[in-house]
TrEMBL record:
This is CAP-Gly domain-containing protein. It comes from the Eukaryota. Belongs to the TBCB family. Gene3D superfamilies: CAP Gly-rich-like domain, Phosphatidylinositol 3-kinase Catalytic Subunit, Chain A, domain 1. One of its GO terms (cellular component) is cytoplasm. One of its GO terms (biological process) is tubulin complex assembly. The keyword Ligase does not apply. It comes from Stentor coeruleus. Its main location: cytoplasm. Residues 172-214 form the CAP-Gly domain. The keyword Membrane does not apply.
Length: 233
């Protein structure tokens, strides 16, 4: 039989892993194919049964004769060799229900001289702040130094993004993070609100035209609406 190379996928009955487009010689015996696959999938060649499956998912042949050549079964590129694992001791590792788990009662766990729960409690006693989530420290005057040039009625744009609009609010918002916020009525419906936040009204505008941003994101100037800007095409 003339030897050619064929590209085959390989699947396993007890593993979710797949091998794609492995090259096999059609002159190889089924036994040598099994030995090759044993190194890849871990199943002993003695406990393998190989099926040849076409690209439509149909079983073409059960390759039972170890002495036969792979080419005898006429495999085509992109067919699949499906390994049926017949070893009763093989654990299906993809199904956690089949894996033995170590279990311990609540009473026995608490009776251990050392366990994670006790370790955690000791750490909390020695350093109460250790288990607290790290939150950025923002002071109540955050970005106060940036609001001096921003006044209600100013035309502005927001960077990044170059959204344009008019300043309608400068101040603090209790339902947002501490520090100063700028409320802007946008020229286009690219905002998130109507000048309200958490039920509190800070300025009037139509829905989706309102937005609150930090002063650092605001640039004031003679920024016309896009449809009135002579530099815009």
């Amino acid at each position: 039989m003339e030897s050619t190379t064929v590209k085959l996928n390989v699947t396993h009955s007890k593993r979710s892993m797949k091998a794609l487009e492995l090259r096999f010689s059609t002159a190889s015996t089924i036994e040598s194919v099994k030995n090759n696959l044993e190194m890849r999938f871990g199943t002993s060649a003695n406990f393998m049964m190989l099926k040849l499956v076409d690209t439509a998912g149909n079983t073409v042949a059960s390759m039972l004769d170890n002495e036969s050549k792979l080419g005898f079964y006429n495999p085509q590129d992109f067919y699949t060799i499906h390994i049926v694992d017949l070893d009763p001791s093989t654990v299906d590792l993809d199904n956690v229900e089949n894996v033995d788990k170590y279990e311990i009662s609540e009473e026995a766990y608490n009776a251990l001289d050392v366990n994670f729960r006790k370790f955690k409690e000791e750490m909390k006693k020695s350093n109460p702040d250790l288990m607290k989530p790290n939150k950025p420290q923002v002071d109540d005057e955050h970005q106060a130094d940036l609001i001096g040039d921003i006044s209600v009625g100013n035309r502005c744009r927001i960077n990044p993004g170059d959204k344009r609009g008019t300043v309608r609010f400068v101040g603090k918002i209790q339902t947002l993070n501490p520090g100063y916020w700028i409320g802007i009525e946008l020229d286009e419906p690219l905002g998130k609100n109507d000048g309200s936040h958490s039920g509190n009204k800070y300025f009037e505008c139509t829905p989706k035209h309102g937005i609150f941003v930090r002063p650092s994101a605001v640039e004031v100037g003679n920024f016309r609406p896009y449809d009135e800007d002579p530099d815009e095409i």
